Structures are given as structure tokens and as C-alpha cells.
């Protein structure tokens, strides 16, 4: 088998260089992704689409004005001493720099939702992520 000459390796070296440059803006470990799960069932009915949007506009956006993503979901869970409950829900995803201020803001969002819509809990899942803007 013949060994490739130096000219044959140039395309590979160029491809690796381009790949490294494309990933240069990704910050490893510099971002946190918090995903919050909000049930929409409550005593006497459901949290309406208008109520959800008002909550996002007035309770979430002021604390995370740089951006967030929300989508409808359907889930299930078991509350204290109950059978499995299925309900419509909303998922809220926020990518942010880790800080005590962000933690307090997320705790506040969960507490406000539980109080306003008579909820037992809000599920919060946190991951360290790589992100590029």
C-alpha cells in the first residue's frame, strides 16, 4: 500500500480547520438550560391560553428578557396519595449564564405559578449545555 503524499492530506487538514472554526463560538460549560414543566389543570378548570401568555409576559419575561422558548405538551404525574393524573401542560425552556440571580428568578417563577394557579408543584430540570448565539 502506498503512503499518501503531502498534497493528498491538504483537503483533510482544511476540513478539520473549518470544523474547528465553526465550533469556536460554542462555550463549553458556560451556559445552563432550565426546563420548567407547568401543569394546566387546576381546581375548577384549566389555565387558559390567555392566562398562560399573561403569566409569561408579566412574570417570566421581565426576569429573562434575553429570550425563552415555550411549547404545549401533555403529561402525567402522581400527586400526593393520588392515582396517575394526565393533563395538558406547558414547557418553558430558558438558556442562561449560571448565577444566584437566575436561580432566584427561576424559584420566583415557580412560586408565582403555584400560587396564582393553585398548583402543587412545578417540575424544574437543569442541565449544563454548550450554546452559541
Q: In brief, what are we looking at here?
A:
The protein has helices spanning 6-22, 49-60, 100-116; strands spanning 27-39, 41-42, 45-46, 69-78, 84-96, 123-131. With 133 residues, the protein is an alpha+beta fold.
Provide keyphrases for this structure.
single chain, 133 residues, Alpha-Beta Plaits, two-stranded antiparallel ribbon, 3 helices
SSE ordering: HEEEHEEHE
Side by side, the strands of the main sheet go 4-5-1-6
Average pLDDT for all residues? 84
CATH class: Alpha Beta
Write the layout of secondary structure elements.
Layout: H1 6-22, E1 27-39, E2 41-42, E3 45-46, H2 49-60, E4 69-78, E5 84-96, H3 100-116, E6 123-131
Antiparallel strand pairs: 1-5, 1-6, 2-3, 4-5
Write up this protein:
By secondary structure, the protein is α+β, with helices and mostly antiparallel strands. It has a single domain (about 25-130), classed as Alpha-Beta Plaits (2-Layer Sandwich), CATH 3.30.70. Helix content is about 35%, strand content about 35%. It has a four-stranded antiparallel β-sheet with strand order 4-5-1-6, covered by helices on one side. It has a two-stranded antiparallel ribbon with strand order 2-3. Strand 2 and strand 3 form a beta hairpin. The N and C termini lie far apart (about 45 Å).
